[in-house]
Amino acid sequence: xxxxxxxDFDATSIAKLIxxxxxxxxxxxxxxxxxxxxxxxxxxxxYNRADDIPASEVLADGHGQCNTKGTLLxxxxxxxxxxxxxHGFTIHKALQRGVVPELVYPLAPSEILHSWVEVDLGDGWVxxxxxxGFVRDLLYRHVIRHxxxxxxxxxxxxxxxxxxGFDRPNHRHEETNRAA
Length: 180
Hints:
Blueprint: H1 12-21, H2 28-42, E1 44-45, H3 55-61, E2 63-64, H4 66-79, E3 84-92, E4 111-120, E5 125-127, H5 134-156, H6 171-179
Parallel strand pairs: 1-2
Antiparallel strand pairs: 3-4, 4-5
Helix pairs in contact: 2-4, 3-4
């Protein structure tokens, strides 16, 4: 299991995290579970500058989405000797409606890569960069992703942005239903 440009499990920050958490000393299943829980629970959902960044940068950012969190998960797993691989398929951009600001929604590619990681448990595999173009990529890296992350933070606080074609619950209607 050699490192790659993205799976830089020998980076100081990655190796230090593995050491501090004691993951390499755990039994295989516990090792996988502990690393998965870390990435799921301690690396928040958010958009990085690009999908093709090294795991050490995802860790430094402290946030990621399916593709970048997958990169970090794979690097950590490989760093403790767990074989893993990446799977992916495309989803329609409509699934990100509400997170992607409406002003830039038309710029997003119609199909977006979604990925997940599989691990080799010995008896079988278990599963638990968009091409924007130069100008779109530049906008994404320096403006749009920050805008999207702010929208995700607002959604977490319960502030839902308007989404064309979707009705928002009427507060008065909810109160009427509760009284009935």
